[in-house]
Design goal:
Length: 367
């Protein structure tokens, strides 16, 4: 083989090697570029996931914190409302206790005011009962009444004889008769004695009814006085009883009103606390649901981002592998072309040498 053939073959081989080397370098560069893209996408994916997870965690903590504060505020409002109702109930109870005390003082004053009338009426009734002869009232006897039953006993001759009117007229008539008989000088005569007897009988006949009427009138006057005094005591007792009943009614109304107001206040406080508790629970549940939904949405976003980044990474690796495969194919093709060129060159060289080709033909063929 001449130096020309060697040069031809060597040039073809060197060209193939250079082409293959260039293809390998291009494939490595494409692979490195795809690896860098994939690594960068992976790092970005991890950073994005961490940022999304931090955002979700902070959002959940913020929802939890907000729910806790809302619950605390609502419970505080419920407590304040309950305290206000309790304070109002206590103030109402104090006011009603003062009203009850005032009612009691008024009743006690009325009772004290009526007490003298009650005592006088009691004494009047005792004397009246003694005067008409009821048993058990001896201690109520009075010198003005006389004996027991004096107000209801019958009129007697003794009552007539001691009647002041009858005694006065009898005394005055006897004095007149005595003066008349003395002036005539027959003071102790029979006619004078008959006149005295007749005068006494006539006077007794005339004065008996008057004495009886005065006796009954005196009894009636004493009776009416005692009845009036007894009625005064009875009215005083009735007024005291009415005052006591009025006090009892007012006290019952006040106490009932107090109990009702306190019960209503307690019920209102319990209702408010229940409502605030329900509201707080609903708020907490709503915040929890919102947090869960938010985290769920972020999870969907993570999934979408991860899928996208994974797809980008896969595409980058695929492109890298494709670039490397293309570069390898180009290199192999270059090697094949180089080898084929070398073989063709050798064939042509030996063909020309064996067939007697001229130098001019070889030069024309490129040798």
């Amino acid at each position: 083989m001449s130096w020309v053939a060697v040069a031809v073959v060597g040039g073809a081989v060197i060209g193939g090697v250079a082409s293959s080397y260039a293809a390998n370098q291009q494939a490595d560069a494409a692979k490195d570029s795809a690896q860098t893209v994939a690594d960068t996408n992976f790092q970005m994916n991890q950073a994005n996931i961490q940022a999304q997870e931090s955002a979700a965690r902070y959002a959940a903590e913020a929802e939890k914190y907000a729910a806790g504060k809302i619950s605390e505020a609502q419970m505080y409002a419920a407590q304040q409302a309950a305290e206000a109702d309790k304070y109002a109930a206590d103030q109402l109870y104090k006011a009603q206790q003062e009203a009850l005390k005032l009612q009691r003082n008024m009743w006690q004053k009325q009772e004290a005011d009526f007490q003298p009338f009650l005592e006088g009426g009691q004494q009047g009734y005792n004397q009246l009962a003694y005067g008409i002869g009821l048993d058990g009232y001896q201690d109520a006897a009075s010198g003005n009444l006389g004996g027991a039953g004096d107000l209801s006993r019958d009129f007697t001759l003794e009552d007539f004889n001691v009647d002041p009117g009858y005694q006065f007229r009898l005394s005055e008539g006897m004095k007149a008769l005595d003066r008349s008989a003395s002036s005539k000088g027959n003071l102790l005569s029979g006619s004078t004695l008959k006149g005295v007897q007749r005068f006494g009988q006539d006077l007794a006949s005339q004065e008996y009814q008057a004495a009886y009427s005065r006796f009954r009138g005196d009894q009636a006057w004493k009776y009416n006085q005692l009845v009036g005094l007894s009625d005064t005591g009875m009215n005083a007792a009735a007024n005291i009883g009415a005052a006591g009943q009025n006090y009892a009614n007012n006290a019952a109304n006040i106490l009932t009103g107090t109990a009702g107001a306190v019960a209503a206040s307690r019920q209102n406080a319990a209702t408010l606390q229940g409502q605030y508790a329900v509201n707080a629970g609903n708020q907490l549940a709503g915040n929890a649901i919102s947090g869960a939904q938010y985290q769920g949405n972020l999870g969907l976003q993570y999934a979408g981002i991860n899928n996208q980044l994974a797809s980008n990474t896969a595409n980058a690796y695929a492109n890298s592998q494709m670039a490397q495969a293309n570069a390898n194919a180009s290199a192999y093709t270059g090697w094949g072309n180089a080898i084929s060129s070398g073989i063709n060159a050798l064939g042509m060289y030996y063909g020309y040498n064996s067939g007697g080709g001229s130098t001019a033909q070889m030069n024309a063929a490129g040798w």
